[in-house]
Amino acid sequence: MKKILFLFLTLAILSCKKSEKKETKEEVVVVKPTIKLFPLVGGSIFVKKLEAFSQDTTYTGQTKQFTDAYYVISHPKGNLMWDAGLPENLVIPEPFHEPSGVFAIQRPDSLTNQLKKIGFKTEDIKYIALSHSHFDHTGHANSLKNATWLVQENEYNAEVGDSVKTKNPALKDLIKVKKLNGDYDVFGDETVVIKYMPGHTVGHQVLYLDLGLEKPILLTGDLYHFEENRTSRGVPSFNYDVAQTLKSMEEFEAFAKEKNAEVIIQHSPKDFKKLQNLLKN
After folding, report:
1. Spatial distance between the Cα atoms of 16 and 144, rounded to a whole number of angstroms
2. Residue 89 pLDDT greater than 60, yes or no
3. Is there a contact between 33 and 74 (Cβ–Cβ < 8 Å)?
4. CA 219, CA 193: separation in Å to the nearest integer?
5. pLDDT in tens, 197-226
6. How far is the C-alpha of 126 from the C-alpha of 147, rounded, in Å?
């Protein structure tokens, strides 16, 4: 009888241990959401006077071709649009040479047509976040009036706040607003994170994306405009605050190193192609 009782207790203990192991294993399983990134071209910018992108005469007499990218991030909890390209009145046959003489600009197609090609409509966009509020990043923003605008509070106040005499017309229809004060985890799972990196404008921000690739992606906004900017820490003449920009560059590089992230300079045609190739693999 004692042998039978001992055998019963042994089996019961083993059964409990197996159950505990199973429960422990189930607890550590993390299912990441399926996220897709769609890079789109919101315009072409030919810089005729590259010296505007330096605090000195470094680039005097030089020119450079920029792209003007924007992005759709598809997440199970909603779709986010990052940046908004050039205005749609620049969908024209020949580039427009704006009055300052710095830029020749042109947009290839409308937002509606570009979204249609990737299977979306404007109504499908739940959130819009702009790296900042310059004209080449706000172009079609008003077309997303039903989306919630994720914006740093100081950037909001500078562009359309109650104390602003002339509000930015490119943002007038964005009435659903979530004001941020620093970094923001958009979907609460650390896959799409807005990082506050001021200096280019008062509320400039960059975007971190964990798409399940070999490396996460870091979209620079206009912290850098081209590769040499990143190497030399070059600051454009029209930045809001030089010291703040340099501090943001330091923080950006530390974060990129910590995350082993693939940095994508948004105005770089080379990086746009690199990102397309990464998403194909």
Report:
1. 56
2. yes
3. no
4. 11
5. 999 999 999 999 999 999 999 999 999 999
6. 5
Query: Which neighbouring-strand residues pair with 194?
Result: 184, 207
The CA-CA-CA angle for residues 237, 239, 240, to 5°, reads 135
Condensed to tens digits (0 to 9), the pLDDT of residues 129-155 reads 999 999 999 999 999 999 999 999 999
Residue type, 106: Q
DSSP-H helix ranges across the chain: 2-28, 111-117, 153-160, 227-232, 242-259, 269-280
CA distances from 40 to 28, 84, 103 (A): 37, 10, 21
Residue 177: beta bridge partners? 149
| pLDDT, tens digit (0-9, with 9 covering 90-100), for 170-199 | 999 999 999 999 999 999 999 999 999 999
At which residue do the structure tokens 């607003």 appear? 177
Quote the CA–CA distance of 226 and 24 in Å, as a whole number: 48
Query: What type of residue sits at position 26?
Result: E
Cα 32–chain centre separation: 20
The CA-based angle 205-120-160, given to 5 degrees, is: 35
Domains contained in the chain, CATH given: 31-280 (3.60.15.10)
In this prediction the pTM is 0.89
Report d(CA 244, CA 263) in Å as an integer. 20
Return the residue matching tokens 């702009």: 130
For 9, how many CA atoms within 13 A lie in the half-sphere containing its CB? 6
Which band of pLDDT confidence, cut at 50, 70 and 90, is reported for residue 30? low
Q: Strand pairing of 148-152 and 125-129?
A: parallel
Backbone angles phi, psi at 38, to 5 degrees: -120, 105
Say which amino acid occupies 52: A
Residue 125's nearest CA partner among 110, 141, 107, 109 is 141
Structure tokens belonging to residue 77 = 């909890």
Instruction: Spell out the residues 6+ positions from residue 138 whose beta carbon is closer than 8 angstroms to its own.
Output: 84, 130, 168, 170, 171
